[in-house]
Amino acid sequence: MELRHLRYFVAVAETGSLTVAAERRLHTSQPSLSRQIKDLEDQVGVDLLIRSARGVTLTEAGKVFFDHARLALSQVDAAIDAARRAAQPGKQRFALGFLTGQEMTWLPEAMHILRAELPNIEITVSSDYSPDLAEALVRGKLDLAFLRAEPDYELVYRPVTHEPLIVLMPSDHRLASRDTIRPQDLLGEPFIGMGNKATVLRAVIDDYLERSGVDITPEQVVDNPAMVMSLVASTRGLALIPAYVQNLMPWSVISRPLSGQAPTIDLAVGYSKSNKSPILKMFLSHLDDLIARVSKPRP
Questions:
Q1: Where is the domain boundary, 45, 75, 105?
Q2: What are 115-131's pLDDT values in tens digits?
Q3: How many domains does the chain have?
Q4: 208 is in which domain, residue-wise?
Q5: Which positions fall inside the HTH lysR-type domain (predicted)?
Q6: Are residues 250 and 283 both part of a single domain?
Q7: The pTM is what?
Q8: 203-212 pLDDT per residue, tens
Q9: Could you tell me if residue 82 is inside a domain?
Q10: What pLDDT does residue 89 have?
Q11: 230 FRET partner, CA 20 to 30 A, in 13, 71, 194, 198?
């Protein structure tokens, strides 16, 4: 068993799709990825995935293996980072994390600030689920992250934007002809809900539906934008999702705004109060400028 087997398996488990993992995370072919996963299952001796037309889900054995695989990869990454730091003890480093998909909006301007002040700094960038970013901040693996204000972690949060929720649907859905979507329009449609890795977003959605008098039981519950879009397209379902996901949509999925006053969810920068990095202090001093640059209308 090699590290690539673990990385491949984790990518498939997180995206819920062999195709999405192959094309967007691993940059390999789907048949090749399928063979690698089958080789891994043969080595472990049990089935790790349940394959269906809608994607893949983890078996009970797969769920256990997934937790250990992520831990093993995390430890390997930490070992590599420690070795590099030991080889260059005087070099300045800064670790940035992003809620998956948000790096497309915020990373270029964040890099501009860091490079302008410290041209020789070593910057590492990662994307992950919001709770996992919070965990990495607490453990000191990240200096700063763009994430949700996770209530279970003692971190400092500073909001950078308020994102409206939008409705995702198949591009040929009957509601696609409408300019806006009412919450009542969601009734009777397959609904894709948020899972345990998106508890802040799930709470915002649940509160909005309750205030709107709409009672919906999700047919599927997922954690990441790629899987949401995959299920919207494959099940012809609807989903409520922050507007930044529009940057990631394939041709098979479109979005429509909600009518009236749409609910919003905060994106914040988070960091540990105990982190005394002078680079973190410098970055935070430029935060208002960063927000202004990102918010500026594009030509």
A1: 75
A2: 888 888 888 999 888 99
A3: 3
A4: 162-265
A5: 1-59
A6: no
A7: 0.69
A8: 999 999 999 9
A9: no
A10: 59
A11: 71
